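The freezer alarm interrupted the setup, so I double-checked each line after restarting. Inputs confirmed:
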Amino acid sequence: MNRLKPFRRLLPALLLGLSATAGVLIVTNAVAIASNRAETQSPTELVAAFQRERTANDALPTELAAEWSAVLGQAPADNSAGVPDYQQSRLAQPGASRIWLVPTTTRQLCRIRDDRSAGGCIDSSHLASDGIDWGLVDSDGPGPSPTVIWGLVSSTVSKISALTPTGDDVAALDEGAFEIRATAFPKALLVAKTDGTTLRIEVPPPPR
Amino acid sequence: MRRTRWILGGCGKRTVLALGCLALLVLPTTIAWASQIDYKSGTNHPGQSWQTTGQASRAYNQVWHEAGKYWWVYYVGGNNGQTYDNANPTHYGGGSGGSAYSVCANDNDSSGVVWTCQTTTP
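Predicted 3D structure, all chains:
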């Protein structure tokens, strides 16, 4: 009995240590589960066009589907965006542009423009964290043609504008897709949220 | 001559014409895809860019990479067309409108996933 005495003294410290370890493990697990959920969330859960029923108007033209099947079919194994499900496509028309959104088997979302200037498939990382997934395309680089800033936003965004040396250009927004035809190369994007906050995103200068 | 007549007679001129038209439709697409080249592949190196060894008329310029990481693709020469995004692929679908180098530039991809820059040659 006397032999157990030193252990009795240590018992509270032992219990405290075990509780602390269990607590750390629970918190770590919860963070891992939360971050894993964010990574595997489909962009379709965040974009307005997918919160309504699909109509015949949403169908992607056959020739564009064939072109993008060819592009995506040649992806290196490390970078595959999955197989597009054209039966789930949605059409958004911000401004004068037509952009089809096509989910894939790897929970990515392909954005296909009717002018064929740009396109590709995105995961949900930027939409989930910032409420916006954006890119730009310019048919003449530093030339006089407008720089097109385009992309998708989640329901947490109410307005997007581009800050350029000549002023602010406000985005046309339709069903979660947006587009800005900027009169000059933008310095930054301002993303106004429905909660009243504004996110500023710096646009990097072209690397040339 | 007799053989040719047999072919035209046996299969029918319409069939030959249809096959010819089909070839005209399919061949340009096949040639376009066959001329795709990988001009650089690697991992990481954000802040760096790579270009083709020579100038040529290009049909498109793109880079496959980890989705969510930002890349530029652009032409130096021709119409200087460019695009910047985090999509996979980052794809500039417009032609170069003249002889140009294709360039891909890694903005923030340090994912460790292999990236591949592709364009076309005539």
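Quick read of the result. Chain A touches chain B at residues 70-71, 74-76, 78-79, 81, 108, 111, 113, 116-123, 125-126, 133-143, 151, 204, 206-208 (CB under 8 Å).
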